[in-house]
Amino acid sequence: MIEQAAVVVRGEIIEWVGREQDLPTEYRYPCRHRAVTQFGNGSREQIEAAEANKQAEAIDEATNEATAEPRHIDLAGRALLPGFVDSHSHLVFGGDRGDEFEARMGGQQYDGGGILRTVRATRAASEDMLADRALALLREARAQGTTTMEIKSGYGLDVSNEAKLLRVAARFTPETTFLGGHAVPEEYRPVQAGDDARSGSSVPHFGDRDDYVHLVCGPMLDAVVREGNARWSDVFCEPHSPYAFDGDETCAMLTAAKQRGLGIRVHGAQLGPGPGARIACELGAASVDHCTFLTDDDLDALAATWLGKQPGAWAEMSAETSSAASSAASSKMQPAASALERQYGTVATYLPAVEFSTKQPYPDMRRAIAAGVPIAIASDCNPGTCFSDSMPFAFAIAVREMGLTIAQAVWAATAGGALALRRSDIGVIRIGAKADFALVDAPSYAHIAYRPGVPITHALDLGGHDRQPHRG
């Protein structure tokens, strides 16, 4: 933390950060509040955020192009954080599954089958309809302080519809993920008595689940790579669900994606212990997500991926690697650079609001911290298990139910999310980083968890630019 500090922004990049008394003459201006939050990077041992709970003052340079005069923004004693980095979401979908939530609240268990209901509705929706809904959700998220959001496909589950979903996602973010391995679709499932996913519908039968895995590994990935709208690939590895994929199927799909230049991610250990975390480590995945039932062996494997790769120094990578990371993130869907895999291990990304919505047990995130595993918090906004795009809500649950200190939650929701996306230009307030800020209408970031459900956190727009999400 830097107390009595100032931040200078030129365009969309942070140009200077430091104590106000050291502010260069060309940036000086009269103001009442001269303290700003600067976040360092958490140590691998503690994954701690800096104690950044002071009043904030931001200086926005070059926002008046006509006069070239700097614009000074007095934040009037409010706390300033890096914008939230939501590294796991499913925003592109059709239909509604509110009845499933009601059923779960009545005691029904989640098994993954509802995904196929969303697939039917999503296939029937036009690209523009899907984009309109995704845009509305993105604007909700930004209004609560989220400035970077990863978006997955996964509700098309055939060649044309997965491509459709990725085209929509790519309108809004460079962090797009191909999730053809989300579930085995109806046309590749055997018809069984009492199968709710197939009942009442006339569905063609194209083969078995092995045929579907071959489709993902071949024609589906070929189309995804050809269109260039995915940076990542993901698989729902969950042996406890008859709709998801086992370890061998997961390895096959992720290996095929990696061979085509996509970075990889894994849904793992959501419904019970399983091979997802181990596979993520073996294949060099950026993140394993959910982590509800991680075992001690899983945590040891995750920690081992970071040996010699201190997350506390992740933003201080060589200039060459930092340039590669920035280029991959800012250009139109460049694949995750292989050089980044040598710099990063696998992050454990927790999705607190999923446990809230499914009544699953809350995992203790302190186990990962104690094991030396970098952590992230994400929303997992989706129509089935967590229809919430609120990072402050996930943040509050992580503090109240999952063992994090408030400072640890700040780190996990900002720098941790950036780490899970292998990005060094977001999730921090430092020279050269993007000027993505979350403003808290309170004197301390503790109020994010202290006042859950109250809209006190939102993205801070700088530079006079229209930085609201919009359809491309």
TrEMBL record:
Its EC number is 3.5.2.7. GO terms for cellular component: cytoplasm. GO terms for molecular function: imidazolonepropionase activity; metal ion binding. Residues 80-450 form the Amidohydrolase-related domain. Keywords: Histidine metabolism, Hydrolase, Iron, Metal-binding, Zinc. The keyword Zinc applies. It comes from the Bacteria. GO terms for biological process: L-histidine catabolic process to glutamate and formamide. Pathway: Amino-acid degradation. It holds the Pfam family Amidohydro_1. The keyword Iron applies. PANTHER family: IMIDAZOLONEPROPIONASE, IMIDAZOLONEPROPIONASE-RELATED. This is imidazolonepropionase.
